[in-house]
Amino acid sequence: xxxxxxxxxxxxxxxxxxxxxxxxxxxxxxxxxxxxxxxxxxxxxxxxxxxxxxxxxxxxxxxxxxxxxxxxxxxxxxxxxxxxxxxxxxxxxxxxxxxxxxxxxxxxxxxxxxxxxxxxxxxxxxxxxxxxxxxxxxxxxxxxxxxxxxxxxxxxxxxxxxxxxxxxxxxxxxxxxxxxxxxxxxxxxxxxxxxxxxxxxxxxxxxxxxxxxxxxxxxxxxxxxxxxxxxxxxxxxxxxxxxxxxxxxxxxxxxxxxxxxxxxxxxxxxxxxxxxxxxxxxxxxxxxxxxxxxxxxxxxxxxxxxxxxxxxxxxxxxxxxxxxxxxxxxxxxxxxxxxxxxxxxxxxxxxxxxxxxxxxxxxxxxxxxxxxxxxxxxxxxxxxxxxxxxxxxxxxxxxxxxxxxxxxxxxxxxxxxxxxxxxxxxxxxxxxxxxxxxxxxxxxxxxxxxxxxxxxxxxx
Length: 460
Description:
Strand order of the largest sheet: 1-7-6-5-4-2-3
Number of helices: 13
Order of helices and strands: HHHHEHEHEHEHEHEEHHEEHEEH
Largest sheet: 7 strands, mixed
Number of domains: 2
Strand content: 5-15%
Shape: globular
């Protein structure tokens, strides 16, 4: 969390920007709104701050658990600045400037994918973005099955149910990626309306074999959706393994792509984005709103979105961040992604050299999974929870994940598969600062393991 001096400088910047914004409306007559006294507001704000202390330190590198990354300071300032107007990006009538900024920001994301032509918009998050992608797929392939890997986000099965589309989960290989042979068999059996390829699974950060899936599309003609809500920005990283790099390089051949700027894009929640390669799918959204679409003949964002009211402030913050940190492989933004992956590789290397841990596979992006060694899956799960709690007592906040036992078949052959899944430890090293903190994280984990597993506070 920034210190008080940093906060003061940021507030000074915001004050200056507010003056610039307000000068654009200086010809309006004064209109002072009703508001409570400053003393009352201060009391409530202090109470709010006190309540918010009941949180994990998501902003700090020692929070290495779930997918929580602090927004860039500029994104926070731009969001707050836009709140003076509180624009609604459903229609140009409600968010004229912010609509233009959204179109520019979304075009930047499309260019990152490799598209000069596209249709897309921001939305509340990955769930809504994936819903729109599968809704379009269902309109174009009525009744067609949706196929996604067993490690794909659970939202795909839920969305398919909402849309009335049949769904089938496809088995994964030992590294958490969709199994090509299993997908091929499913397609030969009953075909598919849409196949979802995940580039960065939620649990392990695994990347499905997109080039191979594209080969199957040539034969079966399904619609291909890429869920890159978490991993999409890693297309800019230059330290990926060749297989992973090949999957991201093939992303431009997808029919639709989802990316969440509120994950690696340094944005406040919620800010998701859905992109379509063919702008003609906009015809599927066509509708009329007799109360909103008046001031412009240009396309309103509400005319290409299932959502109606949406915060224009999210678009303003994203545009400002991309203006400061362009989405190029040579820039500062890409360097941050490279640092995140380097941190994950460093932690993986230390864990792999420690006899206490079973490490199933190296990270493809910046998520590391591992588990304490034990005689059975049940016992491993118990020990994982013990280490998790011991680490938290030392201010190291990890996460837990339930993964298939077969993921650990090679790294922990001694483990009896008395349960189908095993609870393991998981760390998302998504802050660039994690590269500098990887050794400290391992040292704290070492001491926590010594307490929880009854072993000395030394590395094995």
